[in-house]
Predict the structure.
Amino acid sequence: MNAIEIQNLKKKFEDKEGTTWALKGIDLRIRKNQIFGLLGPNGAGKTTLIYILSTLLLPTSGTARVLGYNVTEQDKQVRERCGLCMGGTYFYWDMNAREILDYYGRLYGLKRSVRKRNIDMLIRKLGIKGFEKKSFGNLSTGMRQKVAVAKSLINEPEVLFLDEPTAGLDVEVAMDVRNFIMDMLQERDMTAILTSHHLQEVEQMCRKVAIINKGVLVAHGDVEDIKKRLKVPDIIHLYLNRYENLEFLRKMRGVINYGVSDGLFIAVDSGLKRLDGIARELKKRKIAISDMEIKKASLEDVFLSIVGRKERGLRFGRFRRVG
Ligand SMILES: Nc1ncnc2c1ncn2[C@@H]1O[C@H](COP(=O)(O)OP(=O)(O)O)[C@@H](O)[C@H]1O
Ligand SMILES: [Mg+2]
């Protein structure tokens, strides 16, 4: 059985400003016992999808099943078996971590002994011990987020939804949270669905991902396969003695586009295959190379090439399209 099965799922929001189709017909299956990454830029529909799967929103049409249970008709069964952790969650200001976790444990109807066992384990493993007696209002962002992660696991969920769980956290706490989640998945049978626009995080934690953009699934599968299938270019980065008259690059085989900023960036189908030819052409024009580097495309490059957004730095958006 799959952990998640989604068929032609659509969600429409209507307000004063008009109609937004946040999801425009998503089809997706997610196998059990893995961390699955749901990637997309802001406004892609990630949170909407997580809300529907965790029964907080109703779909406009289509179906979604979690562990075989229909999220619309069997919401209670779904909720019992799921945990949800969002970035920037708030709890009652004057409760401490232990009280918050106990409160949620009671909402799930867990027995006192089970609550105690789970709370002790979560407090220990998430490193909450040092601040378990402090009220939530006095905790730092990182500590608060650890409490939110612990809360999402209090009912020993089979499916854990993590919606940007490390948003706004400093590097160290984000790493703690990621490591903890990975450990939990090794220890027990659990499926986690992680949304993020933090591409490195997803690349590090998930083997399989889906990329959504504007409510549409644009790619889905193994990270490595997606990279191959999309023919994401390599990037040849060269430092030259001058940067004029480079238009000849446009006509060269294998060159997708190029740009000059901090050096010359050339996007090519294969870095190793094209470098010699490019070097030869530069030499012919008496342009000297002082330094060079070939970069392999990362998931970030794949992502940006799909969603077509301009970002700063050594990225795709920097290149003007050729031809
Ligand atoms: N409650 C709502 N009312 C109206 N529009 C909404 C609502 N929630 C989300 N949207 C819109 O749906 C789209 C998807 O939003 P969201 O699922 O939050 O994206 P993401 O989590 O990927 O950033 C956006 O265009 C957003 O403005
Ligand atoms: Mg979101």
